[in-house]
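Reopening this ticket.

The earlier resolution said the output was attached, but the attachment link was broken on my side. Pasting everything inline this time so it's all in one place.
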Amino acid sequence: MTTRRSFLRLSGGVLAASALAGCRERAAATVPASVPDVLLAGSRAGIVRLSGSEVRPIGARSALSRAGNTAYVAGDDGLVRLDAVTGAPIHRQDIGGGWAPRVVAESSDLCVLTTSGPAEPPAGRATSALMVAGPDRQQTFTLPGCVEPDAFTSDGTGLFVLDWLPADRPDHYRVRLLDLTDGRLHPLLTRDKTPVPPGAEEQMRGRGRQAVYSADRQTLYTLYTHQPEHQHTRDLVGGTRSHVHAFVHVLHLTERWAYCLDLPDPFGHGPAEGHALAVDGTDLAVLDTASGTIARADTGSLTIGRTARIPAGGGGASLEFSPGGRLFAADGATVHVLDRGSDRTVATWNLPGAARGLRLSADRTRLYAGGENEVIWLDTTAGDLRGRARVDGLTTVLSVR
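Inline output:
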């Protein structure tokens, strides 16, 4: 039975909780909404540029270089190359209608466009149209099968693509090289720079969760999860079998070889969204929030050196290295701050909502996190909330300049 005293006690607790929530809302509302850096974010309406109090859409049909310095936008004015930091147009060319930018070369002077939007898996088709465009180039290719662009070679003479199989009902793919000179698809090289033998090309059956370039833009690391029946080239050549559920696909953009860095159990058993990848110099890290495991590897030897642990939570994963010696690992709305040398957790911070990407400012004093229709930033000294800006339909934080 609820007495008058218990009713007052209960109602008082509710009122106190409401007052506390109100104080938190007012405190959050008082933080600045002016972004102190230039931030590029992905949204359901395309790429968005934030600077100061300005939130400016770049375009619904747009693509950003992974360095975050160049964007290509297709619209009524043709294909426009922009300085993504200032928003100023650099170059414009006519390309005709129906094309959308997909991948920007790290040299920033080339972009590949398609007539179909990104999807995984893509819709089945018998042929695929790709256009490679730049200030002094405009090439159109019609390739057999269901082909999607992935990355340019360092010298811009080739394009790595995903060749989906079977073409009419795609459910797995192989990575191949489109020679932009002869317009033909070729197998990649192995890590020792020898051609992959016929029938030994790897066929990816899982999900490409995240792709990260090395600092010198010579290597692309792509995290794959859930690989039922996947066999590496080295297994196909050697007659062995692999039973890994996740690995990092290492693609050298200059030497044109590929290698798969296997991740130990339990990586790949949990949701794909609970995995994240980060690379800094020779240090590579992969997070699995379902198990609370962080695998650390050396990019030179391409071997797992050690693993670190955080509390298992199972939320969406984001990962960011700090050149100052820390690693930020987000599990949903919780950010674990680890010392890179000892793997010890030195702080735990709470976000207003689940993180949709983490990025550091250039001076390493602010940690940006995507959220539900917003971007927030924290002080990297204590993790205090320093600002938040609204971005409708935000999907991830792409770059901070």
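Reporter confirms the inline version is readable. The domain at 193-350 is CATH 2.130.10.10 (Methylamine Dehydrogenase; Chain H). The helical segments are 4-30, 233-238.
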